[in-house]
Write a structure and sequence with these properties.
The complex is a heterodimer. Chain A is mainly α. Chain A has a domain at 5-43: Histone, subunit A (Orthogonal Bundle). In chain A, 36% of the residues lie in helices and 4% in strands. The longest helix of chain A is centred in the N-terminal third of the chain and has 18 residues, at 21-38. Chain A is flat, with a radius of gyration of 22 Å. Chain B has one domain (1-485): Alpha-Beta Complex (Amidase signature (AS) enzymes), CATH 3.90.1300.10. Chain B has an 8-stranded mixed β-sheet with strand order 4-6-5-10-11-9-7-8. A 3-stranded mixed β-sheet of chain B has the order 1-3-2, sandwiched between helices. In chain B, strand 10 (436-444) and strand 11 (447-455) form a beta hairpin. In chain B, helix 9 packs across helix 11 (351-364) and helix 9 packs across helix 12. The chains are: A mainly alpha, B alpha/beta. The interface between A and B is large, with 55 and 75 residues.
Chain lengths: 95, 485
């Protein structure tokens, strides 16, 4: 599968990373190199092989439904770029 | 004092030969004098270190039983969250991030009253094999400052090699403990997936990431593992299994131990001089009574391609949290929310991190999931099965840690794949979740070579025993870069 310029623009949007016009060609080349490497996977015969998500096939543990964490909102918001009245501030979303 | 091992420092503190304050001052002084050359530290926590050293000395003086690492200075890779101390992950994105909590690994060292000298440099978000992707500049290899220290835990490895810290924490997603250990001539252990808590360890690829120690000797790794390994309910993938004392069996004999040597690890890509050093190490173990046989790991060649689907896919999901809203970098004067995200992430991440996020987004995007992600997860099982079959015949698997010794800065050029292939022998272990180690086994053109030991799940104690026995009859681990010891 070869990657196109339009793919890069779409990926930049999906990943929310602005890619400047002059960097698109370089990004296209380096992503092309990586995808050429991973395309070697296509040669592997994986018929009937179950995908492996956890090396020891472990599953999520359950825990009692009890409150264990204290409220540390002030500490968490102290490191935020912008807050007001306990809320995180972002540019206006709704006009 | 700086040329002593962790075990010797622990003994020196216990016997009163020196105090923790003296020891800590000595290492802080070395860091201040020498680290301008190596750039191994991002943050040095001098005053905090001296305070905890004084507290450790008081604890010892009180006569209470103390942990063997009480008062012993160590360094943390700047990927482990430290409450009140900037944790950057070597990224501009987190240059201003001061965590409101400690990683479990950090808590474990606090509980042992170990002293933290500072936070070590690394590849940005642990993505790299040369430390060249750090926002704080590359780390220099103490054996040859024109060469890379390896990555991503290059700062931790260089700090230990240059005797700026006797041991350090590190993490390994595709070789990030073992490869820098090999390139810097020290010992490193990546434990079984789930053995060390990942809570508070900034995530790169969650199904592969594992914390572990870097130190000079296997004995020191065992002392570090006794602190690092723990069951942690806060990490849902941490395994609820008893943690052994990793020092107990170090002195056991290794007669009759079955060692497998994978023929695929000695292919055309391996530097012939590296191969010679590794073969010599294996012969040394044969002299100690180990039984050596050739084995095959037929799907080894697919580990790098599978990794570069799975790791970027997980990274693209994990790194979506860096959005300029709750903490970390935010771009100036965002026009709207989309602009805030797009520019914050464009400014905050370096090129390699962006590349991996984009590759991950591609592999997970509609229409490509089955061809890439699902396929890679199937291949991952094939790679694991290779090891499962091998461990029916042998107890340990030995080979080179990496194909070449330390390479010069900038030598891998523009194609990222050239760098990725430096991890060709270490990645399979992460995909399978197995423990892996690297110990020094010789030199090529004056630069260190690493011997890789891969064990079965939870066989860290036996691996450390094997490495310790090797280090009883060889002195590669005692060698120091010129002018250091």
């Amino acid at each position: 599968m070869t990657i196109q310029r339009s793919d890069i623009e779409k990926l930049a949007e999906l990943a929310r990373i602005q890619i400047s016009e002059e960097n698109i060609t370089a990004t296209l080349t380096s992503l092309g190199n990586v995808l050429q490497l991973v395309d070697q996977l296509q040669a592997a015969d994986t018929t009937g092989i179950a995908p492996m998500a956890h090396p020891l096939d472990a599953v999520q543990r359950l825990r009692p439904d009890t409150v264990t964490e204290p409220n540390r909102r002030d500490a968490f918001q102290a490191i935020a770029p912008a807050t007001e009245n306990g809320l995180y501030l972002v540019p206006k979303v709704i006009e | 004092m700086h040329d002593k091992t962790l075990a010797q420092l622990s003994a020196g503190l216990a016997s009163g030969e020196f105090s923790s304050v003296e020891l800590t001052r000595h290492f802080l002084d070395r860091i201040q004098r020498l680290d301008a050359t190596y750039n191994a530290f991002i943050t040095v926590t001098g005053s905090e270190a001296l305070q905890s050293a004084a507290a450790a000395d008081a604890r010892r003086a009180s006569g209470d039983a103390v942990h063997p690492l009480c008062g012993v200075p160590i360094a943390h890779k700047d990927i482990f969250c430290t409450e009140g101390v900037r944790t950057s992950c070597a990224s501009k994105m987190l240059d201003n991030f001061v965590p409101p909590y400690n990683a479990t690994v950090v808590e474990n060292f606090l509980a042992a009253s170990a002293v933290v000298l500072g936070k070590t440099n690394m590849d940005e978000f642990a993505m790299g094999s040369s430390n060249e992707t750090s926002w704080y500049g590359p780390v220099k290899n103490p054996w040859d400052t024109g060469c890379v220290p390896g990555g991503s835990s290059g700062g931790s490895a260089a700090a230990v090699a240059a005797r700026l810290a006797p041991a350090a924490t590190a993490t390994d997603t595709g070789g990030s403990i073992r490869q820098p250990a090999a390139l810097c001539g020290i010992s490193g252990l990546k434990p079984t997936y789930g053995r060390v808590s990942r809570w508070g360890m900034i995530a790169f690829a969650s199904s592969l990431d594992q914390g572990g120690p870097l130190a000079r000797t296997a004995e020191d790794l065992a002392l570090m593992m006794n602190v690092m390994a723990s069951f942690d309910p806060k990490d849902s993938t941490c395994l609820d299994l008893e943690v052994p004392d990793y020092t107990t069996n170090l002195n056991d004999g290794i007669a009759g131990l079955r060692i497998g040597v994978p023929k695929e690890y000695f292919d055309a890509g391996l530097n012939p001089k590296t191969a010679e050093a590794v073969q010599a190490a294996i012969r040394e173990l044969e002299k100690l009574g180990a039984k050596v046989q050739e084995i095959s790991l037929p799907h080894s060649g697919l580990s790098v391609p599978a990794y570069y689907v799975i790791a970027p896919a997980e990274a693209s999901a994990n790194l979506s949290r860096f959005d300029g809203v709750r903490y970390g970098h935010r771009c100036a004067d965002p026009a709207d929310l989309r602009d805030l995200y797009m520019r914050t992430r464009a400014e905050g991440f370096g090129d390699e991190v962006k590349r991996r996020i984009l590759v991950g987004a591609y592999c997970l995007s509609a229409g490509y999931y089955d061809a890439y992600y699902n396929k890679a997860q199937q291949v991952r099982r094939l790679i694991k099965q290779d090891f499962v079959s091998a461990f029916e015949q042998v107890d340990m698997i030995l080979g080179p840690t990496c194909p070449n010794p330390a390479f010069p800065f900038g030598s891998k050029g523009d194609n990222p794949v050239a760098m990725y292939l430096e991890d060709i022998y270490t990645i399979a272990t992460n995909l399978a979740g197995l423990p892996g180690m690297s110990i020094p086994c010789g030199f090529v053109d004056g630069k260190p070579v690493g011997l890789q030991i891969v064990g079965n799940y939870f066989s860290e104690a036996r691996m450390l025993n094997l490495a310790h026995q090797y280090q009883q009859v060889t002195d590669w681990h005692d060698k120091a870069p010129e002018g250091i010891a």
